[in-house]
User: Which sequence fits this backbone?
């Protein structure tokens, strides 16, 4: 690929996904949050009474909790300017042809139908506050795999929905989980029956187009005993002069012996506040793996977590963050060992550049009785210039004698010796730097689906091009 | 290098005229009490002003609870520190077991004893005195060496902003130690301060100020111990250390308070150009210990080594909070804290490496390792990094685990009981820290204290009571590990 094309695609200042489409919607709530807005959302979705009650209760919880001050700077996020609900189309489509033309064009530019044709078992797409498209391969549907919008999940599978919704992340968990529980809209509902192996990934795309929109998707994934699933989500938004807000809640139930991998690559525009709660309940001998890539947004606070509640459960969190000028990536992971012989691993790699700040914030907790729990945490930070900042806040709380816990973190810049060695082998400085950075993120990049790994590598290449000298 | 050979005679010091005063429980003190204290101690104006400023800050601050980050693992609202009474009194003169123990310092350049916060005895070698060393209780120093004390006291970094108890200390500091070593003087032998508490329910606020002149070398050892007291006592202490340019300063504190003592200590060191500061904190006693150790590397070439060990049993709560603050380029810090926990004891370690913008070529390391020796023990570890410079090498590590069963098995196959094997392994665990303190007498002293404590459970040695009384005499035998 010619160099100038690469630049064009990967420039963060000229954010590739920063294009915007004219606003066209069938309903847009008033700015700000109120009981009326919550009632409107619930009414638009024709929800049962119990769901409205839960939403209103969650609104009370949200209002009673203070804005957290321990992480990123939230003082400039003006909630009174946010639109909490924008309905883009009358209904969700099953066929790409039915999606309204302008929305379709947007997703075409993001490459979604292409991706579906190429390699996915199912695709969902959310535009503003609602899913506009959901499709799963027929053979998976025949095996009983459910892949719907969360609203359809509530309508079509009320028993499953009610049994699990809000059980992994209750509304009172934190302020933004409460907010999501009050105004949630869109997201996926996935059920994989016992023993079914969804061999290729399901994927969802999230797009915010309206300025000052708040997107509150809610995803519920249930992998029944022995099932296997890989779910990928990608996020983009146009670049506006004032902030938009994304606050998702992802609940995952990984039943006995099941195996779930959840991959997020968020590349929101640089004026997005991204506060997401992601948590999995992992039962006996089951495995949960989070791969979390944070490249966009102005502030991300996101700590995917695994509650290991059954013996032999295991959790893995791979986190990669890139904080460019003006960005704060406050990412990390949480693992609670609540059962014997549970194991976990957290690997975090972050790169900071310019006035960018990347923070690792993690909690590793071993409860009494989690005999033989083992965990290892590794955090590495790379600083590309002297303006950059990195922090590591790894909370380790151990109440079980037989636990084996390790934590290590390093902060480095590109080593002169490494550079010198590569240059002595005839590699130009710029290329050598890129190679070193690629090597730094390799342990995580190799876990990404190919298209994302390629994109991450290109992004790094571009960033490094700009940093020579 | 240093042998405890010739016994050293200690005489009563020139005691400052302290007026006896009972100011009441800490929780009932007021601004007027601070003024009364200041009057009783005949403070100069500058010190009284610093006290009042600190008192106002103290009153403004809430009692820290676990909602804040700094005290996340220790809920101060649940400890009766406010019940302890602030009483000023002249030093007692009786010589009981503890007094005689104090009268047996290791070979030293100087020694000092504080009983219930008041100076009971002090001694400084004639040679050191002739070379300009000042080693005295803090109140005398405020009176006699104001030029040396005033620029540093509560100005090195022990300030009200550090927190509620730090502010309380700043307002009420009384008694303590002042040590000044003039430029170029290299003292081979350590200076010692031995402290004890006798009155149950007492609150003391000792302050240590160490000023090392350019190019000087010094070692200062502070040992605190007491019997188990009947009522809750409070030791709210602080140490301020100035490691002048090119100096080498080593400070060790060994804390063996009896149970019922609530121990708070804030230690802050300024490491100046090309200076090397080493600190060791050994926490063995007290019911609640909260120790804050901070090093500020403020000029190029500064190096700070920060060591710690803690051994908890029963329901002891030990909270260590450390700060490696790199504000200047080309500075180095290296921290190692190791702890072992028995019974229901609980430890918390939270450490922060903070590298300021522009502090390039910083090399900082931080490691915390914990051994859980009982199912009810709990350890929390929070090693933090905040880095704002790019040309740095910073890393940290934390581990929490149990004694290696394979090692226990090996020792048991050699005929040791499980308890004895475990004791040996715990002692070995601490050796990594002790090996880095090149003071054989102190190493042995701490080994003996660890051994005594690890031996205090399970089958007891028959001669233990006598060992307890003659602790320092037992120090040399204790060098042989594993004597049951």
Assistant:
């Amino acid at each position: 690929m010619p160099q100038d094309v690469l630049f064009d695609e990967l420039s963060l200042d000229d954010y590739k996904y920063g294009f915007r489409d004219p606003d066209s919607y069938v309903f847009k709530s008033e700015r700000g949050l109120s009981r009326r807005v919550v009632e409107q959302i619930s009414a638009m979705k024709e929800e049962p009474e119990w769901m409205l009650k839960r939403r209103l209760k969650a609104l009370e919880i949200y209002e009673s909790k203070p804005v957290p001050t321990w992480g990123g700077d939230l003082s400039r996020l003006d909630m009174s300017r946010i639109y909490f609900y924008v309905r883009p189309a009358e209904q969700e489509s099953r066929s790409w042809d039915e999606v309204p033309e302008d929305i379709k064009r947007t997703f075409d530019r993001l490459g979604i139908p292409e991706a579906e044709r190429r390699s996915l078992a199912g695709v969902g797409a959310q535009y503003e506050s609602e899913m506009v498209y959901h499709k799963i391969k027929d053979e998976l549907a025949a095996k009983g795999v459910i892949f719907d919008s969360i609203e359809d999940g509530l309508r079509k599978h009320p028993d499953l929905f009610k049994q699990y919704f809000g059980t992994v992340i209750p509304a009172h968990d934190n302020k933004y989980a409460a907010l999501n529980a009050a105004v949630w809209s869109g997201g996926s509902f996935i059920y994989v029956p016992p023993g079914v192996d969804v061999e290729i990934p399901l994927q969802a795309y999230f797009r915010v187009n309206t300025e000052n929109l708040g997107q509150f998707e809610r995803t519920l994934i249930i992998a029944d005993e022995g099932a296997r699933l890989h779910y990928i989500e990608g996020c983009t938004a146009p670049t506006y002069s004032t902030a938009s807000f994304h606050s998702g809640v992802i609940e995952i139930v990984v039943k006995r012996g099941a195996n779930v991998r959840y991959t997020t690559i968020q590349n929101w525009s640089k004026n997005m506040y991204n506060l997401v709660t992601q948590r999995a309940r992992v039962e006996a001998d089951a495995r949960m793996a989070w791969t979390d890539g944070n490249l966009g947004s102005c502030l991300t606070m996101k700590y995917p977590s695994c509650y290991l509640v059954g013996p032999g459960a295991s959790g893995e969190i791979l986190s990669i963050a890139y904080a460019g000028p003006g960005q704060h990536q406050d990412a990390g992971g949480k693992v609670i060992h609540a059962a014997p012989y549970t194991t976990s691993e957290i690997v975090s790699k972050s790169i900071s550049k310019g006035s960018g700040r990347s923070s690792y914030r993690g909690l590793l907790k071993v409860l009494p009785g989690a005999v033989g729990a083992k965990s290892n945490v590794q955090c590495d930070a790379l600083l590309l210039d002297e303006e950059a900042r990195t922090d590591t806040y790894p909370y380790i709380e151990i109440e079980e004698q037989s636990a084996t816990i390790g934590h290590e973190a390093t902060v480095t810049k590109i080593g002169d010796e490494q550079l010198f060695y590569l240059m002595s082998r005839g590699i130009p400085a710029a290329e050598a730097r890129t190679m070193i950075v690629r090597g730094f993120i390799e342990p995580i990049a190799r876990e990404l689906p190919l298209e994302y790994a390629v994109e991450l590598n290109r992004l790094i290449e571009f960033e490094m091009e700009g940093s020579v000298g | 290098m240093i042998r405890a050979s010739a016994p050293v005679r200690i005489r009563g010091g020139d005691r400052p005229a302290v007026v006896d005063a009972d100011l009441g429980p800490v929780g009932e003190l007021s601004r007027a009490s601070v003024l009364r204290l200041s009057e009783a101690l005949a403070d100069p104006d500058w010190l009284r002003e610093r006290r009042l400023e600190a008192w106002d800050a103290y009153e403004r601050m809430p009692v820290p609870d676990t909602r804040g980050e700094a005290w996340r693992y220790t809920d101060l609202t649940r400890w009766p520190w406010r019940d302890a009474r602030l009483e000023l009194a002249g030093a007692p003169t009786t010589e009981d077991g503890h007094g005689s123990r104090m009268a047996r310092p290791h070979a030293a350049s100087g020694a000092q004893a504080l009983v219930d916060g008041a100076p009971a005895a002090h001694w400084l070698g004639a040679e050191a005195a002739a070379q300009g060393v000042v080693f005295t209780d803090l109140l005398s120093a405020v009176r006699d060496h104001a030029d040396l004390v005033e620029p540093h006291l509560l100005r090195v970094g022990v300030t009200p902003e550090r927190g509620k108890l730090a502010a309380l200390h700043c307002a009420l500091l009384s008694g303590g130690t002042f040590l000044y070593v003039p430029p170029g003087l290299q003292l081979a032998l350590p200076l010692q301060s031995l402290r004890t508490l006798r009155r149950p329910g007492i609150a003391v606020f000792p302050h240590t100020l160490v000023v090392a002149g350019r190019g000087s070398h010094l070692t200062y050892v502070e040992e605190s111990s007491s019997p188990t007291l009947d009522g809750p006592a409070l030791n709210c202490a602080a140490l301020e250390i100035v490691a002048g340019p090119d100096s080498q300063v080593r400070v060790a504190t060994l804390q063996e308070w009896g149970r019922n003592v609530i121990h708070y200590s804030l230690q802050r060191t300024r490491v100046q150009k090309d200076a090397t500061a080493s600190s060791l904190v050994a926490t063995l006693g007290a019911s609640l210990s909260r120790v804050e150790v901070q090093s500020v590397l403020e000029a190029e070439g500064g190096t700070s080594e920060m060591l710690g060990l803690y051994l908890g049993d029963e329901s002891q709560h030990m909270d260590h909070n450390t700060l490696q603050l790199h504000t200047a380029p080309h500075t180095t810090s290296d921290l190692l804290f190791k702890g072992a926990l028995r019974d229901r004891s609980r430890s918390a370690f939270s450490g922060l490496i903070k590298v300021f913008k522009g502090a390039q070529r910083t090399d900082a390391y931080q490691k915390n390792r914990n051994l859980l020796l009982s199912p009810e023990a709990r350890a929390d570890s929070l090693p933090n990094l905040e880095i704002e410079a790019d040309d740095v090498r910073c890393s940290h590590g934390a581990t929490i685990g149990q004694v290696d069963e394979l090692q226990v098995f090996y020792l048991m196959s050699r005929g040791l009981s499980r308890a004895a094997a475990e004791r040996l392994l715990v002692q070995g665990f601490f050796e990594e820290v002790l090996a880095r303190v090149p003071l054989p007498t102190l190493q042995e002293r701490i080994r003996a204290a660890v051994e005594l404590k690890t031996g205090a459970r399970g089958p007891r040695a028959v001669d233990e009571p006598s060992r307890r009384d003659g602790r320092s005499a037992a120090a040399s035998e204790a060098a042989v590990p594993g004597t049951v």
